[in-house]
């Protein structure tokens, strides 16, 4: 029986998951492939720590170059993470004529074009299903099954760590930092968890999604990114009272030659399917012009689910190899020469409804002054929760607005923050009511 040899770089959380798939599911993969996948080498800096899986003698090495230059290895899986040395290793694998599978969204969001051009020039495949939505087969859905559609928009809950934190804060009133520690212990978080909580990891994934949905290059630095570290139990409580949940949402929209690409905490009505996505689960809602709305849901992080996506890519490459096809489907779902350069809409032009929370002195006339300033900017008030009567203490005042541009909201808030009766910088959360 024909063998396809695989080399693995990075024996961490996901690397260990990949080895588990090799060990547990060899038979089903062989029956689906008609060939055998063989894990020939695994490189990690540390090959003595117990990772919960045993590896055959002679497979482990501390020398990544041994994997990259081994003429027998057909496919290299990169699971080191980060920019370097992952970039150098992936380019080296391509130079040596190897197909590459990676889960590294950071690398792809920043250096994707360089890597994919090198792969195209060499005639090898680079696949990265695990990089977005962990185990959810979202990238293959976009570039294969849904490829006859023009996409209007894409919404995603794309970070398992943040969704796990927000879910436990919402459902149990749990404390942010202890839940983050738990997410790290479960292997969900990035090596640097600020990438998770500050929205950077979600933005890496959004960059890939927006490029693949709309067929455009995205400059990662143009994506607006806000994380969840400023979300307070008070905002979660008020959101509930208004019938919303707070989620870290990745939003991509295409409209009249521009795209929106932004990541920020967002209030979603509780009766929307995305509001029900809890814990480490992720979901992506796509709207295509013919298929309409499609929602994909599954575990967005963790050893086993992510390893499933990695091995799905290895199988796809192996199938192409066995059938004599090379790079059958363009990596980004579009022929490289047909990829556009659509600009990202500036944040000030975004239109949304807003949740505004002010910390005000409980004095007569405060509400009138704030609503007056909003009125001056033409911002309509949809509903309001007024301060409790606590005399001189500062109390929260919450206003839900009608749709307004971000420019109007930020200018109005700057004026409101100058009032003597407003005791802390005002706080806002965007609301997403239109997911069609
Ligand atoms: N964890 C998750 O749920 C998910 C992760 N991903 C992505 O998968 C990738 C791997 O993540 P994860 O497994 O969690 O990360 P880990 O940090 O658990 O694993 C990375 C491994 O790579 C090793 N490594 C670092 N430098 C080298 C090197 N020069 N040569 C060989 N090995 C090296 C690390 O060793 P050491 O620790 O000694 O530095 C570590 O064992 C990342 O790109 C991540 O973003 C994608 C989806 C989900
Ligand atoms: N740190 C990421 C891992 C998967 O991409 C997350 O929490 O989603
Ligand atoms: Na995926």
Automatic annotation (TrEMBL):
Residues bound to NADP(+): 9-16
PROSITE patterns: ACT, HOMOSER_DHGENASE
Keyword terms: Amino-acid biosynthesis, Metal-binding, Methionine biosynthesis, NAD, NADP, Oxidoreductase, Threonine biosynthesis
GO molecular function, one term: NADP binding
Source taxon at top rank: Bacteria
Cofactor: a metal cation
Annotated ranges, domain ACT: 355-430
EC number: 1.1.1.3
Record carries keyword Thylakoid: no
Binding sites annotated in the UniProt record for NADPH: 105
Keyword NAD: yes
Catalytic activity: L-homoserine + NADP(+) = L-aspartate 4-semialdehyde + NADPH + H(+)
The protein's annotated pathway: Amino-acid biosynthesis; L-methionine biosynthesis via de novo pathway; L-homoserine from L-aspartate: step 3/3; Amino-acid biosynthesis; L-threonine biosynthesis; L-threonine from L-aspartate: step 3/5
Family matches, as Pfam families: ACT (PF01842), Homoserine_dh (PF00742), NAD_binding_3 (PF03447)
Top-rank EC class of the record's enzyme: oxidoreductase
Biological process per Gene Ontology, one example term: methionine biosynthetic process
Record-annotated active site: 205 (proton donor)
Annotated positions binding L-homoserine: 190
Family designation: Belongs to the homoserine dehydrogenase family.
Designated name of the protein: Homoserine dehydrogenase
Species whose genome carries this gene: Syntrophotalea carbinolica (strain DSM 2380 / NBRC 103641 / GraBd1)
């Amino acid at each position: 029986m024909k063998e396809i040899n695989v080399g693995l770089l990075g024996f961490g959380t996901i690397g260990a998951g990949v080895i588990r798939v090799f060990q547990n599911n060899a038979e089903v993969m062989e029956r689906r492939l008609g060939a055998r996948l063989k894990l020939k080498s695994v490189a990690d800096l540390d090959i003595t720590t117990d990772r919960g899986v045993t590896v055959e003698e002679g497979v482990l090495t501390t020398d990544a170059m041994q994997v990259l230059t081994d003429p027998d290895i057909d496919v290299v899986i990169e699971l080191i993470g980060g920019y370097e040395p992952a970039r150098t290793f992936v380019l080296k694998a391509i130079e040596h004529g190897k197909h590459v599978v990676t889960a590294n969204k950071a690398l792809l969001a920043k250096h994707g074009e360089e890597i994919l051009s090198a792969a195209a020039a060499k005639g090898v495949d680079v696949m990265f299903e695990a990089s977005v939505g962990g185990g959810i087969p979202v990238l293959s859905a976009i570039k294969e099954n849904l490829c006859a559609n023009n996409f209007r928009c894409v919404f995603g809950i794309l970070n398992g760590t943040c969704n796990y934190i927000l879910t436990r804060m919402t459902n149990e009133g749990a404390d942010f930092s202890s839940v983050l520690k738990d997410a790290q212990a479960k292997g969900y978080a990035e090596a640097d968890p600020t990438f998770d909580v500050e929205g950077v990891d979600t933005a890496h994934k959004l960059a890939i999604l927006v490029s693949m949905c709309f067929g455009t290059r995205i400059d990662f630095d143009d994506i607006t990114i806000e994380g969840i570290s400023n979300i307070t139990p008070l905002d979660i409580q008020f959101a509930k009272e208004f019938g919303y949940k707070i989620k870290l949402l990745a939003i991509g929209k295409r409209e009249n030659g521009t795209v929106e690409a932004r990541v920020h905490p967002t209030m979603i009505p509780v009766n929307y399917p995305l509001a029900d996505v809890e814990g480490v689960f992720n979901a992506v809602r796509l709207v295509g012009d013919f298929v309409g709305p499609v929602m994909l849901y599954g575990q967005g992080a963790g050893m086993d689910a992510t390893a499933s996506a990695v091995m799905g890519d290895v199988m796809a490459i192996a199938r192409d190899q066995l059938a004599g096809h090379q790079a059958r489907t363009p990596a980004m779902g579009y022929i490289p020469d047909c990829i556009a350069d659509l600009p990202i809409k500036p944040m000030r032009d975004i239109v949304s409804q807003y949740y505004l929370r002010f910390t005000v002195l409980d004095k007569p006339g405060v509400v009138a002054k704030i609503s007056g300033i909003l009125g001056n900017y033409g911002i309509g008030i949809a509903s309001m929760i007024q301060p409790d009567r606590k005399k001189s203490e500062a109390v929260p005042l919450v206003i839900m607005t009608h749709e307004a541009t971000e420019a109007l909201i930020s200018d109005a808030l700057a004026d409101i923050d100058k009032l003597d009766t407003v005791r802390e910088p005002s706080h806002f959360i965007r609301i997403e009511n239109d997911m069609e």
